[in-house]
Structures are given as structure tokens and as C-alpha cells.
Description:
The protein is of the alpha/beta class. Helices cover about 35% and strands about 15% of the residues.
Amino acid sequence: MPTTNWTRHHILTLADFTPAEYNIVLQTAASFQEVLSRRTKKVPTLQGQVVANLFFEPSTRTRSSFELAAKRLSADTLNFASATSSMTKGETILDTAKTYLAMGTDIMVIRHREAGVPNAIAEEMDRLGAKVSVLNAGDGQHEHPSQALLDLFTICTLLDPDYPHLELLKGKKIAIVGDILHSRVARSNIWSFTASGAELHLAAPPTLLPKLFADYGKNRPGKLFLHWELEPALRDADFVMTLRLQKERMTAHLLPSLREYHQLFGIARSKLQLCKPNVKVLHPGPVNRGVEISSDLMDDPEFSLIQNQVTSGVAVRMALLYLLGSGKT
Ligand code: CP
């Protein structure tokens, strides 16, 4: 592994991530990607440490890849799902976290439908003087740092497989299209892509992209643009990320119909003609096929990086667990 100057104890947001930190994550993930290509895909790095996946909200990718990442690092893993836990008997979130602390957990990976829960648990752990690290695996509409880091890694490794680094995105045009209002992934991506010096274009109907998103672009190395139509965002884009319509978070009627949404903002092969010829399409998943992206485009390896994102997730999450856990061994 690369020797690092990593000092961050919790990973809760990318808002204050430095270019050096992004590059440490990218290069550590590249090392683990190499490990994952070997016949023996396991290293003893976190042997004896305990990684607890505390998922208070459903997940497929994040939960499984954090579990696999921890196992590849030889950590012991604990998996919690609120629906089958003592929370059904009235136990609180903080008491649940303290229970896992008492079992010797070194890293807590936390997903919750409410923004701020990982921060609240991290504050409580710090107040108790516990050495446990907290990693935000998606909290409400707030942030999903590990997803944005794996998106960044997927793009950077495509541009330079041997030396993925943040500066590769300088001058690249990236479009994020869809339900930006409800997306924690978009918020974390905005921080990472604008840290890189890329030109980031957000596109959605006005109900899903309030003007206040322009504030995210203030004082960032990259430029941020907002569009309430698709074409200007796609024109000459190098990368297009489309987002799921998060119907479970929509409290009002924000769209006339899914059919109209697909016509206006859905990504299909025909619309990619506006982009650079070698454009690539990303989606954090889970996908509503035929809504935010056409089904055939999603499965087209010429354009789609969606499976690459999932694969990158294991290496990036190994990197994050390693960086948080290596100080503890
Ligand atoms: N991208 C993502 O967070 O997917 P899951 O909800 O399946 O973890």
C-alpha cells in the first residue's frame, strides 16, 4: 500500500475533502484493485479489527461491497439490519451504536434514511472517547461519500488505469441528470467533481433542481452550471451520470408523468449524439429501467460504466476501511 499522511478519523462528508485526500483514496484503491485481480484476493491488513455495517435503510450495493471489502482486508464483520434488530422493541439508534461499540467495533459503516445520523453517532463516539471511526454509507438527502469516491475512481481509472488521480478531470465536461433534489449521491459528487477542476453541469426539471444548488459551486476549483433542460448539459459532455427518481422521498407531485420525464430527461442512445463521441454513462443504482435511462443503453458496454462502478466499489471501500483502520492496528 502507498504510505500516506491520512489523518481523517471519520468520513461523513466530502465537503471539506482536500485534493491530497482524494488522491490518497484513488491511489490506495488502485493498489487494492490490483490485489482484487490476483488469484488470492485477500490481505491481512485489518486482521483482528471489527467492521460493523449498521444499515437502518435498505441497500444492495453499498452494504454488500462494504462487507466484501472488510472481508478482503481480513476484518471481522458484523451486519445489522434495523428490521430484524432490537430497534423493533424500542432500542434507540445511539444505544444500538453503543452496543456495537461494546462488542469492540473499530469501524461503523452507517446508512440511515435521515440526514445527520452518521454525524450524530460520530459525535457521541467522540464524546465517549471511543476510538471507533464512523463512515457515512448514505444519510437521507445529505451525502453518500463512498459512492462519489467510487464514481470518481471509475472515471479516473478509465482515463489513466495506472495512475488514477484527481487532476485527470480538469477541463472534462460531466453532466449529472435527474432527481438532484433528493440525491445524496449528487451532493457528494458535486463536491468531488468541483474539487477536480471539471466543468459540472446539473440538469433536471425545475422541481428537482432548485436554484440554491448554484451555491455548491461557490469558491470551488471547478465550474458548476444549472440547466432546466437536457440539451445544454449533454452537449460535448465526456461523462453523463443519470440519477434515479427517488419516489420514496417525493412528498409532493413533482412530475407530470414518468413517460414525459423519460422523453425530456431520460438518457437514451439517440440523445448521446450531442455528447463527445466516446462519452460514457454512469448511474449509482438502483436503476428504474426505462425511466431515467433506457434499458438497452444501461446494458451497452460501449457506453455504460454501471457495472464498472459496482466493481470499483469494492476496491474503493477497501481503501476507505484501510485508511480509517490502519491507524488502529
Ligand atoms: N448506490 C447505492 O447506494 O446503492 P444501494 O442503495 O443498493 O446501496
